[in-house]
């Protein structure tokens, strides 16, 4: 029996230990999910909605415990993990509304009877989750998929199995009679590979762009498998003008450093004018970054950010940082460890990369790369100079510049005078280019969880011969 463990990145303490699902266990879970599908899909949607409401109640009953589990596994402070659990709870109502609005039944009268639009579930959905929002993000696939009538086999990130297990407990309570409708299997990439290679009708994935590209290739010739990919980015934030430099710096710091830079929507690239405002803003951002409280999830005063997910993640980020410095980047704030802390802790870093070649890669850590540009044309060009297109932002009071960003920018989330990480479950969330595959999640998840069926319907066959009248041989 091979075991999986998760650890608190702040202390190295073991948080969870359990069995890894090998290929046979994965096949067995998929078979159970397939057997459970017809009865679940045949239920009236109101019954599946009722199950989702029971899941919501189960989450509510455990909300503090789940917030703590997420905090321990990811290192995120409790203020943030409480928000994450609140989003999970809120997802149920949003998904019910979205399902009705985007994937509900519609009918309109026709001369012969009626035209009816219905939505049908795909079947067995595999869900693979990331570590950074280990509850909220897979939840954003699972809830709409189940309401639509699919069955789900979910593999949480190998870094956050306890969060997945807590979600499974809530679904078990909600689904009592339909317990194989949702199953959680644990393991790392090999378990994910077995799941993806199994008999599935959809893969709903939130994770890295590299894994997403791999799945696009695997399923290139499988139009029968629905693929929804929510991937990373190399997100630009253009900070062009602000009457209040400190307010602008707050937007930048929140965009770049929240969740220790481990949000897919974090700004990685700050584009500023090469003038006095640009210089003042960079100073203000560096000053604010100095004052960020960093600590473990259960410390007082409560930190704003915790460690990275692991020592290995910190080492990888430091290697990327060193590579940029070697290429000629100027260090404004280094990516240092924190004295007396585990190796997963890092300080937010700022580099000036103006004029040097920088690989178009996501650094999933608090590393902000500044480019100084001569004019707004150059700013837009720099912002769009990426193969990704997840989030982007503009700090400016100038409506004309905002219009230019809206028209010329290429990203799925484009914010103005707000952090690039600002997003709502009542809106779609997804990216262009290598950030996804045009199947945005959040409010639009209902779209990829069911396929539309269009029907012309008459109660009997009368009235059809008229179309052939006069065009038939005697
Ligand atoms: P990851 O791609 O390493 O892993 C995500 C999940 O996929 C895990 O469960 C992992 O075990 C599994 N997996 C990875 N490779 C696999 C393979 N070849 N076959 C089968 N399963 C595989 O991602 P991560 O490090 O957990 O998460 C961080 C990444 O996710 C960042 O790139 C971030 O930008 C991205 N992300 C995107 C969004 C979004 O909504 N667009 C949201 C959050 C995170």
From TrEMBL:
The keyword Lyase does not apply. Signal peptide: none annotated. Keywords: Arginine metabolism, NAD, Oxidoreductase. It comes from the Bacteria. Residues 4-447 form the Aldehyde dehydrogenase domain. The keyword Cell inner membrane does not apply. GO terms for molecular function: succinylglutamate-semialdehyde dehydrogenase activity. The active site is at residue 230. Pfam families: Aldedh (PF00171). SUPFAM superfamilies: ALDH-like. One of its GO terms (biological process) is L-arginine catabolic process. Belongs to the aldehyde dehydrogenase family. This is Succinylglutamate-semialdehyde dehydrogenase. It comes from Novosphingobium barchaimii LL02.
């Amino acid at each position: 029996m091979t075991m999986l463990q998760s650890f608190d990145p702040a202390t190295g303490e073991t948080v969870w230990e359990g069995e890894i699902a090998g290929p046979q266990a994965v096949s067995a879970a998929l078979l159970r999910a397939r057997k459970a599908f017809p009865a679940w899909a045949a239920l009236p949607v109101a019954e599946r909605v009722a199950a989702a409401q029971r899941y919501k109640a189960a989450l509510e009953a455990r909300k503090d415990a789940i917030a703590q589990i997420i905090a321990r596994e990811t290192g995120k402070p409790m203020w943030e993990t409480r928000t994450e659990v609140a989003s999970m709870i809120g997802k149920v109502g949003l998904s019910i509304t979205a399902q009705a609005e985007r994937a509900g039944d519609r009918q309109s009268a026709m001369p012969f009877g009626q035209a009816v639009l219905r939505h049908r579930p795909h079947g067995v959905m595999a869900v693979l989750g990331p570590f950074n929002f280990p509850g909220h993000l897979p939840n954003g696939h699972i809830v709409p998929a189940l309401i639509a009538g699919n069955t789900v086999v979910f593999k949480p990130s190998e870094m956050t199995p306890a969060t997945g297990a807590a979600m499974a407990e809530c679904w078990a309570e909600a689904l009592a009679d339909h317990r194989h409708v949702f199953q959680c299997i644990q393991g790392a990439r090999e378990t994910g590979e077995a799941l993806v290679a199994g008999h599935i009708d959809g893969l709903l994935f939130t994770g890295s762009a590299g894994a997403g590209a791999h799945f696009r290739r695997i399923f290139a010739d499988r139009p029968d498998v629905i693929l929804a990919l929510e991937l990373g980015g190399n997100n630009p934030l253009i900070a062009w003008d602000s009457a209040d430099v400190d307010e602008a710096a707050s937007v930048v710091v929140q965009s770049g450093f929240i969740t220790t830079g481990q949000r897919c929507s974090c700004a990685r690239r700050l584009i500023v004018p090469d003038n006095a405002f640009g210089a003042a803003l960079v100073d203000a951002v560096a000053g604010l970054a100095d004052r960020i409280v960093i600590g473990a999830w259960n410390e007082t005063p409560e930190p704003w950010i915790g460690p990275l997910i692991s020592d290995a993640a910190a080492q990888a980020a430091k290697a990327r940082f060193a590579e940029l410095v070697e290429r000629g980047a100027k260090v404004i704030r280094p990516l240092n460890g924190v004295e007396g802390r585990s190796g997963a802790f890092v300080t937010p870093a700022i580099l000036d990369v103006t004029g040097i070649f920088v690989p178009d890669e996501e650094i999933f850590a608090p590393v902000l790369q500044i480019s100084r540009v001569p004019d707004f044309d150059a700013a837009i060009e720099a912002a769009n100079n990426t193969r990704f297109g997840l989030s982007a932002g503009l700090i400016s009071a100038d409506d004309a510049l905002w219009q230019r960003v809206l028209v010329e920018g290429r990203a799925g989330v484009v914010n103005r005078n707000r952090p690039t990480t600002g997003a709502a479950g009542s809106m779609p969330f997804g990216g262009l280019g290598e950030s996804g595959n045009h199947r945005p999640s959040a409010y639009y998840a209902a779209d990829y969880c069911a396929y539309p069926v269009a029907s012309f319907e008459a109660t009997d066959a009368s009235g059809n011969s008229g179309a052939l009248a006069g065009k038939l041989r005697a």
